[in-house]
Sequence to fold (279 residues):
Amino acid sequence: MAKFLKEVTIDRSPEEVYDFLISVDNFRLMPGIEEVEKDKHKEMFNVAGKEKIPLVGLEAVRYEIHIDEAKRPSSIKVHTVDFMSPTQGVWKLSKIDEGTKIEYDLEYSVPGSFLGRIIDKLLMEKNMAREADEYISGVKRCLEKVEKIMTKEVVSVDSSAKVSDVTAKMEETDIRYFPVLKDGKLVGVITDGDILSKMYAFGSSSEAYPIKDLMTSDVKTVKADASVLEVIKLLKEHKIRRIPVVDENNALVGIISATDLEVHLGMLTRNNRCKQTTY
Fold:
């Protein structure tokens, strides 16, 4: 039986972290997981997938995640079933300052013959440790607050502006998306697409149009303490690439874009981003 412990600190309350850990979204972060189903009769999740075992190959794996309400939000138990390399573990949550420390405590048995166990042990431990690091870092990235990765210096336009004012600012800044403010509050967004559609219909006379007649006023927004996962869901659901971030008074404090999320999740590196603002 081998054992190791991984830990990470997250800027969220234990209750928030606990709720995420027992969500379908969390289980899909586990390497190799393909299916997640909540047992209708028990406080338990059945999780299934494929796992690469050194020397043995790709094997089916099923986890049972048991929810003990008496231990909420301090711990959650997990173990594999019908699996040739039995695994059992626990998430331990403890409050630290304004955040939560997660300890991922895992035990597993190495399968195979005597020689196989020796070789597998060397390979399995590295593989399991790598997967555990990948998993808990994924949890942390998904729960990160928008304020940590959003673009804070946002170029905006006033609702009293005309199309000609906006096109001039687009030329000057090379930005094609502007939040529209009135008395410091977000009232809409205007894009090059909004302007082009109007100019296509009315030609150059459209330059005198007030942008308040062209802008999108039904704007999806998030608060600065929203999680990365919440933003991803909004982008996907509404088929958009950026969302304004506002405070409790609807004042603009930033913008979170698909590019920001791609960088944060490791899909891009900041060295590969365009030098100019591209939100």
Remarks:
- The chain is about 30% helix and 30% strand.
- The domain at 2-143 is CATH 3.30.530.20 (Alpha-D-Glucose-1,6-Bisphosphate; Chain A, domain 4).
